[in-house]
Write a structure and sequence with these properties.
TIM Barrel, 8 helices
Length: about 230
């Protein structure tokens, strides 16, 4: 995998042929499969559970699966996703009674762990748990629905998170989710991100004449990332 990881969110895929969609987007150059798990409680939407993750693994998907839990409470569902084949499991600090314990639970189940920060959630939750975090995910939209516009203030938050990671000396990925498109992915990388979730920008890019082919948009994203300065 490259240093810059592109993680299509299957929330925007065609669920009637999900295995085929994931196969094609990975074959087109995507690196990671991003799962948006919503519970109609922590966020006002209901999406997918561990059975879908397990089904994709049984289908033959071997790429990392990045599970973003928008559920409350989180601890009950963590072992189920680990057993289903998740690679990363990230959750919102507001959704856990004991953040340190939840991070340890994820790692004890053999997965990489992470915290997710909504646009108005402070990064100070990281102060005492950086050593237990493999991924920091910044939401650049409010969670719950796909297709929203990128919130520009997230760029400053990205720079702050990048400095925290660099100062720690730890191997932590910095992920961005929400409104990521070809025309802003370069600026997002320059602010410090190295992992890019995109849903509608990728899965919505195929025309009827070129159905389910994502080579063009992924190549355009890679080209923009290559232009980015440090």
């Amino acid at each position: 995998m490259s240093d810059n990881l592109i993680a299509p969110s299957i929330l925007s895929a065609d669920f009637a042929k999900l295995g085929e969609e994931v196969d094609k987007v990975l074959a087109s150059g995507a690196d990671v499969v991003h799962f948006d798990v919503m519970d109609n409680h922590y966020v006002p939407n209901l999406t997918i559970g561990p059975l879908v993750c397990d089904a994709l693994r049984k289908h033959g998907v071997s790429a990392p699966i990045d599970v973003h839990l928008m559920v409350k409470p989180v601890d009950r569902i963590i072992p189920d996703f680990a057993a289903a084949g998740a690679s990363y499991i990230t959750f919102h600090p507001e959704a856990s009674e004991h953040i340190d314990c939840s991070l340890q639970l994820i790692q004890s189940e053999g997965c990489k762990s992470g915290l997710v920060f909504n646009p108005a959630t402070p990064l100070s939750y990281l102060d005492y748990v950086m050593d237990k975090v493999d991924m920091i995910l910044l939401m650049s939209v409010n969670p719950g629905f796909g297709g929203q516009s990128f919130i520009p203030a997230t760029l400053d938050k990205l720079r702050q998170a990048r400095k925290m990671i660099d100062d720690s000396g730890l191997d932590i990925r910095l992920e961005i989710d929400g409104g990521v498109k070809v025309d802003n992915i370069r600026e997002i990388k320059e602010a410090g991100a190295d992992t890019f979730v995109a849903g509608s920008a990728i899965f919505g890019a195929a025309s009827d004449a070129d159905a389910n082919r994502y080579d063009t948009v992924l190549a355009a994203m890679r080209a923009e990332l290559a232009k980015a300065g440090s």
